Hints:
- With 405 residues, chain A is α/β, with parallel strands linked by helices.
- Chain A has helices at residues 12-20, 74-78, 87-101, 125-129, 141-153, 172-180, 182-185, 215-218, 232-244, 293-306, 324-334, 349-361, 383-389, 393-403; strands spanning 40-41, 47-48, 83-86, 105-109, 134-136, 157-161, 195-200, 225-228, 249-254, 261-264, 277-280, 285-289, 311-315, 318-320, 337-344, 370-374.
- Chain A folds into two domains: 2-48 and 60-71 and 275-403, Rossmann fold; 84-264, Rossmann fold (3-Layer(aba) Sandwich).
- Helices cover 33% and strands 18% of the residues of chain A.
- Chain A has a seven-stranded mixed beta sheet with strand order 5-4-6-7-9-8-14, with helices on both faces. Chain A has a five-stranded mixed beta sheet with strand order 11-13-12-15-16, sandwiched between helices.
- In chain A, helix 3 packs parallel to helix 9 (232-244), helix 5 (141-153) packs parallel to helix 6 and helix 11 packs across helix 12.
- The longest helix of chain A has 15 residues, at 87-101.
- The radius of gyration of chain A is 20 Å and the shape is globular.
- Chain B is of the alpha/beta class.
- Chain B has two domains: 36-362, Rossmann fold (3-Layer(aba) Sandwich), CATH 3.40.50; 363-392, no CATH class.
- Chain B is 39% helix and 11% strand.
- In chain B, the strands form three sheets. A six-stranded mixed beta sheet of chain B has the order 2-9-10-6-5-4, with helices on both faces. In chain B, strands 1-3 form a two-stranded antiparallel sheet. Chain B has a two-stranded antiparallel sheet with strand order 7-8.
- In chain B, helix 2 (60-85) packs antiparallel against helix 11 and helix 3 crosses helix 9.
- The longest helix of chain B is centred in the first third of the chain and has 26 residues, at 60-85.
- Chain B is globular, with a radius of gyration of 22 Å.
- Classes of the chains: A alpha/beta (405), B alpha/beta (393).
- Chain A: Pfam families: Transket_pyr, Transketolase_C.
Amino acid sequence: MASAFMQGVGATTALSSANYKNSCFASPRSLPERKGSFFVIRSDGSLSSGLNPRNSRRGTLSTNAVATKQDNVTASTASKPGHELLLFEALREGLEEEMDRDPRVCVMGEDVGHYGGSYKVTKGLATKFGDLRVLDTPIAENSFTGMAIGAAMTGLRPIVEGMNMGFLLLAFNQISNNCGMLHYTSGGQFKIPVVIRGPGGVGRQLGAEHSQRLESYFQSIPGIQMVACSTPYNAKGLMKAAIRSENPVILFEHVLLYNLKERIPDEEYVLNLEEAEMVRPGEHVTILTYSRMRYHVMQAAKTLVNKGYDPEVIDIRSLKPFDLYTIGNSVKKTHRVLIVEECMRTGGIGASLTASINENFHDYLDAPIVCLSSQDVPTPYAGVLEEWTVVQPAQIVAAVEQLCQ
Amino acid sequence: MAQLTQRAATFQRTLSAAAFSVSSTRCLNTASTSPITVETSLPFTGHKIDPPSRSVETTPQELLSFFRDMALMRRMEIAADSLYKAKLIRGFCHLYDGQEAVAVGMEAAITKKDCIITAYRDHCIFLGRGGTLLEAFAELMGRKDGCSKGKGGSMHFYKKEGGFYGGHGIVGAQVPLGCGLAFAQKYSKDENVTFAMYGDGAANQGQLFEALNMAALWDLPAILVCENNHYGMGTAEWRAAKSPAYYKRGDYVPGLKVDGMDALAVKQACKFAKEYALKNGPIILEMDTYRYHGHSMSDPGSTYRTRDEISGIRQERDPIERIRKLILSHDLATEKELKDTEKEVRKEVDEAIAQAKESPLPDPSELFTNVYVKGLGVEAFGADRKELRAVLP
Lengths: 405, 393
């Protein structure tokens, strides 16, 4: 497991600015401005160097940090000041900063207050902000999600924590009909700036009902945005961006990634919700992945590099909408795509992504898109079976080898 | 004076045993604000709470406005019926006629800063919260000038400035939303309350009890109003609920049963509930009311109840007739003046319909507006960003 590596949000500049003019669709973002300086990327094209004016620290964003080909380069991180923390602490930091910044931000969920959160993401926040702002709810997902949405209609910015993403299935009606659709059906009168977050994914023998991946169920709901974090750096950045967004955002975390350690900048930064992350630039094949599968891919990448391949790894991060800009530029370069995801095969994120890429970039593909996803089975308890449900690095290596024949 | 009261008494319903008592001098037709005290026709029944008194303070101005507002709502719903049959309104259309007293009585007791949220039978409550007839009809006909720009429809009327939060299609889902509104009110400490309305059918939804538990736990200023029109679509309340005493279903939450066809009783109950909720947390109000139409326009409304029942209620308990009799008995207006008001209201509704018919259909580009709010890192593109590009407002 990679423990520390730098990712650059703007690392795509080096690769794609040349292609910008030739891209098949104009992005409203003005790409040339993304080189070199520190700023917050806003997708409406405007920039702000330095974030919140109320914040005394100058906001900086390291956009040009190069994604190194080696994963564990602690040497390069030691030169950059910052502080080391675990992913759940990064989430907490992002949450705390946003709660400090805006008094309307509040958290609600099961055991988030006095207990500190079942994954310690909200630890200490209840003592600091009070019981109303970090609200311990009874076990009633449907109604406390509904409550959060109702509160959001009046201007509060609640963050709903599902103890496990699978429990949010009980709140599906609220998320789909009220959260996603209210802005539209009210003709724009109400904004629903909620963040719904929680851990999902296959853990260590947690059983079928606690190992669900809900990205595939939520992806067709109009009006919501979905992002998946995978490192402490992007966890904090995405958490902050999700809280500041005026739209409902579902932030997918992964049970097994909470203890990842990384060095992150001291300065404040907010990442773009719709952007993919270039983890490792390459030439031969584009590997698209997100969340925990990123680490399986990077492990496979080590093997592949030893075998002489040069995979380009992109962590798509934004599950709805897809960052087809970054993905497209990569496809145009490598002409081969492999999608590695933890979602189910049927109707998963990979399925939508395959369709999207085929539709938009068909001419650039030299081979059919290969999508490696989890098996369409309930996750078994037995360790060996559970391992086989999920995509393993060996399968990724085999798939790349076949793709690049 | 006694003779006058006697004559006034004979004016009223001959069937029911209720009696009005007048304790102030008769006022002339000047819409004055001098108080009149009226007794509600039926007493309130409380559950774990002392019910408020039956004597309601009102003024001639208020009574006349009740009459006008209810006549307007009634007229609007009947006009919507004809528009639906003329296929100008499509889809679902749930009409509120018969239940106007609840909307009007509630408005009289609260301010626009208090929030109301209800289910799909929302046309009249929208009007009560400050919505205009044009916005209502245009929305029903799917035009641009509708309150939701034609994109919501009959079940999605909203008015943010008026504190009206809709307008929801899924039965029961609005109650947790209502508790969320109350939570926000408690969070910002602004001394307002939320009325979360639902029907007798929705009273059996689990999320209602979940929300009630949370509201009671945190003393949220939420007032849950069950508009019991005795039929959940086609199923009578005794066939759907083991305990049709919906005001008692809150168990640890106090409840009040109110005659929902009496606007003054509704007003008294809502005023009482608001005072209670601001101090003590949630309370349930059960409004005993009735709808003349079927559940929606596709339901004739006569397969599960008899026409005699419907016409019986119309004769005995119609909310508009009740106010009319009250006005006439107190000589606040003459019969002719009230008829004129009704004609005026009819004209207003017809004009609004004509205007709404002129309103243009939404632009095709409106398909993609308001899906997302323009903000940090957000653009309204579809998953592939290519075809579904929209020009954001």
